[in-house]
Amino acid sequence: MVDIHCHLLPGLDDGPESMEESVEMAEMALADGITHIAATPHANDTYSFDGGRSLALCGELAARFDGRLHLATGCDFHLSYENVEAACASPQLFALNQKQYLLLEFADFALPPSLDQALVRLQQVGLKLIVTHPERNPLLRNAPERLRRWLDAGCYLQITALSLTGRFGPQAERAALEYLDRGWAHFVASDAHNVDRRPPRLRQAYDLVAARRGPQVAKALFNDNPLGAWQGVPLPWVPEPADAAAPSTTRRRFFFF
Ligand SMILES: [Fe+2]
Description:
This protein has about 260 residues and is α/β, with parallel strands linked by helices. It contains 12 helices and 9 strands. The strands form 2 sheets. The protein has a 6-stranded parallel beta sheet. Strands 1-2-4 form a 3-stranded parallel beta sheet. Helix 10 (about 205-215) crosses helix 11. The longest helix is centred in the last third of the chain and has 17 residues, at about 215-230. Mean pLDDT is about 95; it is low at about 245-255. It binds fe (ii) ion (FE2). Fe (ii) ion (FE2) binds near residues 5, 7, 76 and 191.
């Protein structure tokens, strides 16, 4: 499996604090069946992003694994004005494996109308946008029409493995399953931060997706599409998105007639 969203590098954000912790996380991922990890530290107001430092730490970590684990860098890109300007100036600096896919994180408290223009600007400089864990964002959970519009505009969607298995509560779990069933999800990733509360594990969610949607869909979401983003090539599996569930008023009207 290929994990494109993981806070694996030490001392950069709220992920591991030491290289030893990073090694422990990476060993845990390997034991779970993960072969590739993109280390994606936050790029936001609290944690500024330093691409060069990430690459150096990634090289240090890779040296501890002697080819047993494939590592690359990217970032967990917060959609602020400053970040958008910086990414438009140097798109590859922020992209996964310095190719063209960008993990996009939205604030929990506001989705301003200007946001859509920011997405267009990022796409105009050649970035392919991956909206991360909308199932965990209450505003996005309640705005499926907006998510659908972004999908129609060529954005992709990543859900978190632990959402599928209930770690983020019933609302996030329900939304993640809905995205999965509607063909809105293109990736599942760990978004791991540590070895206990937010571990780098995907296997349990993989099995859940394989049982619910079939082995081919699981392989696409956990391996084939993430590898496509890693390599910077078109995604091999992009289903036609189904509409959000019809409002319950439809059924009520039926019963009234
Ligand atoms: Fe993250």
